[in-house]
């Protein structure tokens, strides 16, 4: 498997930098007493290769070094080690299982919290937060806490702090929408106006959006109306299909009992899988291989009118050539037959986690770093460099929406009920592998029965969770007959 947050083509263009005019930190007249005063510490952060938000923490680390030198009187330097997303967990686990301090701070995928916390590899943060009032933060939504911080789901046990918030957004070609000839032609064909504002898209359903996707699908011009992720790589297809499943009223599992069979493989969820595949008709050739990088390519090359993409890759989606030509809006609502139109999309983003085996010095630096990272000045600087902070104070600033073109939609989708994460269970990777196999088999035509695919996934996942003790019930006898 290759990474969800895969190496992005043209990645160098993502390396946003900010020239700081006024001093970034408040100068202090005297240093505070600190146990590390006079010492020099070297720290290592493990992050995601090719994923700019991961590297921003290290690129901003000289500001932290300046801060602690002036406030506490110690010197610190940071090294950044990285791995593609599909290899990152294994790289971290291989080190942590030996109780190594090789990586002092790790940028984890949110779904890995259980796999890192269960064996005691990362530091539980409840006591740290209690002892550091600056880390008792008013987050923008409960979704932030549920996604990046807690394991088990629904508990009060905190294992991570948000490093990069992320949601799915719809990136559309504003210049195509604003073309008078296009607007006139669309009005003539459908007797409605093309959507053109944030508010228009906020209220748009998939049925209404389909008219727009169909209108801009012009293979003879090498243009298509839409792109979304279908790739078998890491969790690409899963995150994209979850949007259909959740928005149309479905669920992946019962998190309290670990039950998957009978929850995932309902006829309604099978119908959602068929609907997910049906949208390939508006996508460019090769769409079953589209992941993050490929979605960036087809959009920036002018091949598609719109694509659902992570807000975190906004800098790559809106190139210099596309400045002022792209609108970032909420993705459409879905409506199952007889149901209510809803919008529930996949959460992305990553938390910081702290190596539980850090010695006293490195643990103190890691906690100092967290205290600094969530200062208002740091959070604002992170946003200005293209990052997505999660604290309510920063996101509620009057100027936040104007910092980046995706910020308004990021806030909108970060509201409770509009985005959600999936399993934090330690068996996440095994569950995901089965799911990706099934979805890919269906969208590529290797399997033709959506219900059989959902049955296969549900039975396999039920067995995984039963074997691990998470699920109370074994797979039913009918599971012996399932296959792709």
Automatic annotation (TrEMBL):
PROSITE patterns given in the database record: TAT (PS51318)
Keyword Translocase applies: no
Gene3D superfamilies named among the record's database cross-references: Periplasmic binding protein-like II
InterPro entries: Bact_solute-bd_prot1 (IPR050490), SBP (IPR006059), TAT_signal (IPR006311)
One GO location term (cellular component): periplasmic space
Localisation: Periplasm
Superkingdom in the source lineage: Bacteria
Pfam families: SBP_bac_1 (PF01547)
UniProt entry keywords in alphabetical sequence: Periplasm, Signal, Sugar transport, Transport
Family stated for the protein in its record: Belongs to the bacterial solute-binding protein 1 family.
Protein name: Putative periplasmic solute-binding protein, ABC-type sugar transporter
Lineage: Bacteria, Pseudomonadati, Pseudomonadota, Alphaproteobacteria, Hyphomicrobiales
């Amino acid at each position: 498997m290759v990474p969800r947050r895969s190496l992005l083509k043209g990645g160098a263009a993502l390396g946003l930098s900010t020239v700081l005019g006024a001093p970034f930190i408040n100068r202090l007249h005297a240093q505070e007493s600190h146990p590390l005063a006079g010492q020099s510490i070297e720290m290592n952060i493990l992050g995601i290769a090719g994923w700019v938000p991961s590297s921003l923490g290290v690129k901003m680390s000289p500001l932290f070094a300046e801060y602690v030198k002036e406030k506490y009187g110690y010197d610190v330097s940071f090294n950044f080690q990285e791995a593609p997303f599909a290899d990152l967990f294994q790289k971290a686990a291989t080190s942590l299982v030996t109780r190594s301090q090789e990586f002092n701070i790790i940028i984890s995928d949110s779904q890995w919290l259980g796999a890192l916390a269960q064996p005691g590899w990362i530091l539980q943060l409840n006591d740290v937060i209690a002892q550091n009032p600056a880390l008792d933060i008013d987050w923008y939504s409960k979704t932030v806490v549920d996604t990046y911080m807690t394991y088990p789901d629904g508990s009060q046990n905190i294992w991570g702090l948000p490093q990069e918030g992320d949601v799915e957004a719809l990136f559309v070609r504003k210049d195509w929408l604003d073309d008078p000839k296009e607007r006139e032609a669309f009005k003539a064909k459908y007797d409605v106006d093309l959507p053109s504002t944030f508010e228009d898209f906020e209220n748009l359903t998939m049925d209404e959006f389909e008219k727009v996707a169909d209108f801009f699908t012009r293979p003879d011009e090498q243009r298509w109306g839409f792109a979304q992720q279908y790739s078998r790589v890491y969790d690409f297809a899963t995150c994209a299909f979850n949007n259909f499943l959740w928005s149309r009223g479905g669920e992946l599992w019962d998190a309290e009992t670990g039950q998957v069979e009978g929850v995932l493989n309902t006829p309604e969820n099978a119908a959602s899988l068929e609907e997910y595949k049906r949208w390939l008709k508006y996508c460019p050739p090769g769409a079953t291989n589209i992941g993050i990088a490929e979605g960036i390519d087809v959009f920036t090359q002018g091949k598609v009118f719109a694509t659902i993409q992570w807000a975190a890759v906004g800098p790559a989606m809106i190139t210099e050539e596309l400045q002022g030509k792209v609108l970032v809006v909420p993705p459409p609502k879905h409506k199952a037959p007889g149901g209510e139109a809803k919008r529930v999309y996949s959460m992305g983003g990553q938390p910081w986690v702290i190596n539980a085996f850090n010695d006293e010095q490195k643990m103190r630096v890691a906690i100092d770093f967290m205290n600094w990272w969530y200062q208002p000045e740091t959070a604002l600087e992170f946003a200005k460099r293209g990052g997505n902070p999660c604290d309510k104070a920063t996101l509620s600033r009057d100027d936040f929406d104007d910092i980046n073109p995706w910020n308004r939609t990021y806030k909108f989708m970060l509201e409770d009920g509009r985005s959600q994460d999936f399993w934090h269970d330690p068996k996440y990777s095994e569950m995901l592998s089965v799911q990706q196999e099934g979805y890919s088999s269906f969208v590529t035509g290797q399997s033709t029965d959506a219900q059989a695919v959902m049955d296969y996934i549900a039975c396999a996942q039920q067995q995984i969770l039963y074997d691990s003790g998470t699920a109370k019930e074994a797979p039913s006898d009918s599971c012996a007959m399932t296959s792709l």
